[in-house]
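Design request, tokens follow.
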């Protein structure tokens, strides 16, 4: 099997893992969720966990909190779920566990260690014990192998990682598969690196690999760009000459890439 074929098979294998769920709704606001993601990442950093442990914990949090739609979810419960999500992620993917006594301190001793264990069991049942989740970073290497001849220097790799990390905070990205997010991050990283030929050349192969129409993948790229601007407005002003719209030829409604480009629409800037 050729390397390109093997990479496509690997992407498809990851896509078929049952717990690769998307989340459409949750009983907290967009800003509330951003605070939760920040809390999980800061707590993971305090405990010196792997970076992927925090990202995995955010996935557990999102999937579990979505099962509580219609329930009364107060701030204290949200924090308990976030802390327990990190505990579960550490058990699954890290080299050490957070001391429960330290978690109690984080919660100002307003909970008992047994409450973490009880909530963990509830969460495992709600998640159907599906804890193996291919994160967006898991898709980068096989997708990269599909893009033969594509530019991948240290700066581009750093930008791919930056946009993947940024996507974890964005509420709207819960509706996209992790494969789609990885592909979109590669496309926008090429754009901000001045490699627009790569964005045009590999848009359709990447969309096919992650089982999307090219226009849908472009929408995800634009969503990343918009969210990046909202998070880093000063950087966006500094690089106002960059436009994601310039990275792609217009995608028609049938989802097929046209053979000749038209004039691009005015677009938004991105942080580089």
């Amino acid at each position: 099997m050729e390397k390109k074929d093997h990479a496509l098979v690997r992407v498809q294998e990851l896509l078929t893992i049952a717990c690769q769920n998307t989340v459409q709704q949750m009983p907290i606001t967009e800003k509330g969720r951003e605070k939760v993601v920040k809390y999980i990442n800061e707590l993971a950093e305090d405990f010196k966990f792997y970076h992927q442990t925090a990202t995995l914990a955010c996935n557990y949090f999102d999937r579990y909190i979505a099962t509580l739609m219609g329930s009364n979810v107060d701030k204290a419960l949200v924090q308990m779920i976030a802390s327990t999500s990190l505990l579960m992620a550490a058990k699954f993917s890290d080299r050490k566990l957070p001391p429960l006594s330290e978690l109690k301190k984080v919660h100002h001793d307003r909970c008992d260690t047994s409450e973490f264990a009880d909530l963990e069991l509830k969460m495992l049942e709600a998640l159907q014990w599906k804890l193996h989740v291919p994160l967006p970073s898991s898709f980068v290497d096989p997708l990269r192998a599909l893009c033969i001849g594509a530019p991948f220097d240290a700066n581009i790799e750093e930008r791919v990682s930056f946009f993947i990390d940024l996507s974890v905070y964005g509420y709207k990205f819960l509706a996209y598969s992790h494969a789609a997010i990885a592909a979109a991050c590669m496309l926008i990283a090429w754009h901000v690196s001045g490699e627009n030929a790569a964005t045009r050349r590999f848009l359709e192969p990447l969309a096919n690999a992650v089982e999307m129409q090219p226009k849908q993948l472009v929408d995800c790229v634009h969503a990343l760009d918009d969210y990046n601007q909202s998070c880093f407005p000063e950087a966006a002003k500094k690089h106002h000459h960059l436009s994601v719209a310039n990275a792609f030829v217009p995608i028609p409604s049938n989802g097929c890439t046209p053979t000749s480009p038209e004039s691009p629409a005015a677009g938004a800037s991105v942080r580089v």
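Comment from the thread starter after seeing the answer: thanks! The chain has two domains: 20-126, 136-247.
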